[in-house]
Structure formats: structure tokens, C-alpha cells
Amino acid sequence: MVKRAVIGIFALTLVSFVSAASFSVSEFLDKIDSSTIVLGTLFLIFFAMLYFILSRVFTKKTIYGKEPNQGIATVLALSISLLIVYGLNKLDFNLEDIFFNLGFSSDLTYTLILFIFIGGTIFLGFKTKWHILLVLGIFFILLSLFDIVTESFLVMIIGVITLFVYFGIKFFGKKNTVSIENRRKR
Q1: How far apart are CA 140 and CA 160, in angstroms?
Q2: 16-25, 34-43, 76-85, 136-145: least confident range
Q3: Residue 64: inside a domain, yes or no?
Q4: Which among 19, 25, 77 is positioned nearest to 48, based on CA atoms?
């Protein structure tokens, strides 16, 4: 399933090479409004949280014990997430206005989003054993190669630094060693 999605996205980027159509990913992303990106991200966040909660609530008994009923949890999480995002869209949800009403300037909003991104990366780093750094490094390098961002050289440098940090943690970090007591037990 994931392979098909990756192949589909890759095929979309090759449309301008293959046919006479003038389509590029950067033009497509320029046409997307920032509120659409925020609402899409909120949908994914709400869906993930609701699916996690509902998969714990709706379980079914099997011979192996209780397992989550994925069908019910997925449908309910999807429906509730869509309703939440639809309601936020109808209420003209604006992230900058929320921070401005809390007393932050609009310039400070982007700084706060950066700190939230860095904090989320560190949190996911602990959860995924720092593999998120590999994904982000490759993502930043690909972002700079496809000329999607204006400062592509800076984004490439950030991607390379992120990869160096990942490989530094993997190669020079704490190794899984067996203690002397565990050796004696064997």
C-alpha cells in the first residue's frame, strides 16, 4: 500500500517530463492555502489520537486474548476527525489569531511553531530511537533538490547536519552491551 502511494507521488512529479502538461510540485504547493495545511495537519493529529484511544476502548476477544477492533476504531476516528476539522473550517479557524489573542505577535508565532517542531522531533527521537532524524534529513535534502523552498542551500545544509547527528548517535552512542551478571546467568 505504501509502495503504491510512493510510486503515485513519484509519477506525479514526472508528468512534466513525460507529457506536454505543465505541472510541477512547487506550483501545486504554491496554490495550497496555509489554512488548508493547518487543517490537514490537525486532521491527522486528531485521527491519530482518536484511533489510539478508540482502539483501546473497542476490543474483541480472540483465542490470543483481547485485540483491538480496528474496523470500528478506524471508522469512528475518521468520522469524528472529519467532523472536528469541518467544524474548525466553518468557524474560520486561524492559528495566527489564536496566538495573537494569547498575547504573542505574528512574528513570534512562527518562532513558537519552530520550537514546537524541534520539541516534537526530540520527543519522536526518543520514541523511535532517533530514526526520525534519518527521515527528516532525507526529507530536507529532497526538499532542497526539487526546488520547493526558496532557500534550498540552507535546507540542504540542515538536512546534511541532521543526517550527521543521526549517524553520530547511531555509531558513537551507547552500545547494547551485556553486563557481567547477565553473562554469568547464561
Answers
A1: 8
A2: 16-25
A3: yes
A4: 77
Residue with cell 480496528: 70
Q: What is the pTM of this model?
A: 0.48
Kindly tell me the burial class for residue 140, based on how many C-beta atoms sit within 10 Å of its own C-beta (0-12, 13-18, 19 or more): buried
- Whether 170 is covered by a domain: the verdict is no
84 close to 49: Cβ distance less than 8 angstroms:
no
pLDDT in tens, 56-74: 888 877 777 778 788 888 8
Number of domains in the chain: 1
Nearest to 24 by CA among 6, 36, 12: 12
pLDDT above 90 as % of the chain: 7
pLDDT higher than threshold 90 for residue 83: yes
CA-closest candidate to residue 36, choices 95, 77, 78: 95
In a domain, residue 62? The reply is: yes
Structural domain contains residue 83: yes
Q: Structural domain of residue 48, as residue ranges?
A: 22-93
Helices (H) and strands (E) in the chain, counts: 10, 2
